[in-house]
Amino acid sequence: MKTSMRPRIVTRNLPVIAKSPTGIDGLDEVTFGGLPQGRPTLLCGAAGCGKTLFAMTFLYNGAVAHDEPGVFIAFEEQPEDLIKNVGSLSYDIERLIEQKKIVVDHIHLDRNEIEEAGDYDLDGLFIRIGFAIDSIGAKRVVIDTIETLFGGLDNQAVLRSELRRLFEWLKSKGVTAIITAERGNGTLTRYGLEEYVADCVILLDNRVHDQLSTRRLRVVKYRGTAHGTNEYPFIIDQDGITVMPITSSGLAHDASTERVSTGIADLDDMLEGRGYYKGSSILISGMAGSGKSTVSAHFANSICQAGQRCIYFALEESPQQIVRNMRSVGLDLQQWVDRDLLRFSARRPNLYGLETHLAAMHREVREFDPAAVVVDPISSLMGAGIAGDVHSMTLRLIDFLKSRGVTALFTNLGAGTADTATTEMQISSLTDTWLLLYNRETNGEHNRQLYLLKSRGMAHSNQVREFLMSSDGIALREVYVGPDGVLTGSARVAQETRDRADRVLRMQEVERRAREIERRRQDIARQIETLKVQLASEEGEMERLNLEGAARDDQRSADRIALAQLRGSTRPARSPLLPTTSSK
Amino acid sequence: MTAASMERDGYNLRLYVAGQTPKSLAALANLKKLCETHLPGRYTIEVIDLMKDPALAQRDQIVAIPTLIRQLPEPLKRIIGDLSNAEKVLVGLDIAPS
Description:
The complex is a heterodimer of chains A (584) and B (98).
Chain A lengths: L18 E2 L6 H4 L4 E2 L3 E6 L5 H15 L4 E5 L4 H9 L5 H6 L3 E5 L7 E3 L6 H14 L3 E5 L3 H5 L3 H18 L2 E7 L17 E10 L2 E11 L8 E7 L2 E4 L15 E2 L4 H6 L5 E2 L3 E6 L5 H14 L4 E5 L4 H9 L6 H5 L3 E5 L7 H15 L3 E5 L10 H17 L3 E7 L4 H11 L4 E10 L2 E11 L9 E6 L2 E6 L1 E3 L2 E3 L1 H79 L10 H6 L1
Parallel strand pairs in A: 3-8, 3-9, 4-5, 4-7, 7-8, 15-19, 15-20, 16-17, 16-18, 18-19
Antiparallel strand pairs in A: 1-2, 9-10, 10-11, 11-12, 13-14, 20-21, 21-22, 22-23, 24-25
Chain B lengths: L2 H7 L1 E7 L4 H17 L4 E7 L5 H5 L7 E6 L4 E4 L5 H7 L6
Parallel strand pairs in B: 1-2
Antiparallel strand pairs in B: 1-3, 3-4
């Protein structure tokens, strides 16, 4: 327990109330240890609340687990019936009777057989109880139901004083006792026994709401010790009684930084690429057929793949059906069931009340100790209780799971309708990650979309993704965001086709242009070639002209020489050409 | 009185007490007086002290003290209290006042 912040005087060896553990799951937590040892406890409730079973469980556990033999004084049931009745809880009372660990004494009282003539007391009863206690050295006593005395005997004044004496006497015997009593009209017990048994009063209740009954327990008073004051639901099943306390008084869970995969690679990518936080709670909202179960199954599958355990609370489908359906998206869940990693816990939501569901879930989680649980869908439990109850139940469940570090995934049917909006709001505020699955109708078809509405403590994608299910599992496609808005489904495909066609057209255009340019380039090159040829021929002409010019110059000078020679014969041998020219 | 007549209309009575309490003593005295008046010679009284033999309380279904049980004649009758109310005792024992 937490220590208070106030400064306080520490005193040692304060007398504290010794407690006798009942061995009933949860009750010992609520009472911080059990019933007051050596004192009587009043257990009251209407018929059918489980008083007798409670009392017998107390005796049984005392005899088996704490070596405290017990006496059961039965006013209402015959020992044989009693033994049979609790046999359904696998309590072998007969064996314990043989081992002298339990004594059952039935007290028969019939007003018709008894005539009262004068003053009397209940010494006979005292002697019987005392004898039974002494015969086995009993430490625990149950008197069920002592009010039968009021029906069997007339003299109320005697009865009252004798009962007072009885409780005092039980105290002096040092036995821890449970006295059961019927609930009265507006009072705890019909005959006001709470006046006499003042140390500890526990009230059992079985309320019916919407045709569903829920058992509840409340510690009305526990003198001299702290105790839980709330109403706690409890269940009675073949494993006995489980009281379900709200374990965490504050929000003091360890927050893990570890991550667990969502089982869907694309969804992991939206969550920093690493998935949910371990021990967080995830809500998946969506309409019917939007793929909630498939997302849940992928998560369960990935947990089991990692070799960890997972409980799948199926509230709408049978396990076989889920296994079959998930095969169609390529998940083999049966293998995990076979390996005892995955446990399906299927029960009809209206089988019993909300609290009972909760208690049963608690029990199973405690028993199987999973790393993750899936509740599919939690909204179906709303039929099992009032909306506010669902909220508090979910709160308690989340609390409990968080305190154990169990990652919890809840699915919630119905997104966006006014009817469920408030409930969603209530649940969603409790969860850490909220996925919305839509089923949007556009162009005559429904397309699935996924949106990560919130995810506490991590960067997460803000994008709506198209959610595709195929035999290969789930794929998340980025939706098409174009000039016409967000497109999904065949509209997206059509748009993509259009885009592709456009692209092809563009490509063709580009190619055409390229070809044209190439052609023109070649044209120009050809022209250049022609021009070059032209140029070359021009240049050749030029050369020829030059050469011709030079030749003419030579000829001219030769002619000049020849002419000169002809004019003067002084230099006859100067030119070899002379004879030719002379021959001309 | 013969054994046979005792069988037929004799009264076999058992008085359960717990020690010598005033109530027990009163009950025994009252019973004796009644029987002498109404059943002279036709009764036997057995006093059982549960303090000495507590197991009998369970066997004979005793809750209140004192308890008077009419073993015979059948059927079994039970009267509790110190038997100070003679009328009720007579009704309880099916004895017509003579």
